[in-house]
Amino acid sequence: MGSKNQGHTQRVAQLAQQAGLNSQDTKALYLGALLHDLGKAGILDHVLLKAGAPSDEEWVWVGTNPRLGHDLALRIPNLPAGTLDVVLYHHERWDGLSSGVSGARIPTLAQLCCVIDALDAVTNFFHCPQGCLHTQGRVSIKVCKVTVWPNLPKRVSYLQA
Questions:
Q1: Range of the domain at 73
Q2: What is the CATH classification number for the domain harbouring 71?
Q3: Are 19 and 154 in contact (CB under 8 A)?
Q4: Which domain of life is it from (predicted)?
């Protein structure tokens, strides 16, 4: 993946460890965060490294990332309960616009990973002065809380201003 993605998985995993969950859920969320983009290994480089927005056809490929990652992660022995759900459902939106899974059917750990993933994307992939990074991300999380994740888990309060 391109240099803009450098360190993304590690940052998402580090934020996941700060969620204040019990030790079993923390481990599952942390490992799920480390594996959440595993499926990108099956997406063509010209799609992943493209400078502009993907075409409609390319979005279909990008949308396979969670399923591909889940299928690969199934081969890893002894993952804690919940880890595979994080990988499979980390792109789901509360309104079901992603793959049709919506609302409370989205596992809580996957919801948390989705929010953390979005926070990292907003604070690290978009150009803004160094001082605004976390503030911009927190503002975006507040906006998304209303529009994308209206029932955002209370556990992500540590991400909000």
A1: 3-159
A2: 1.10.3210.10
A3: no
A4: Bacteria
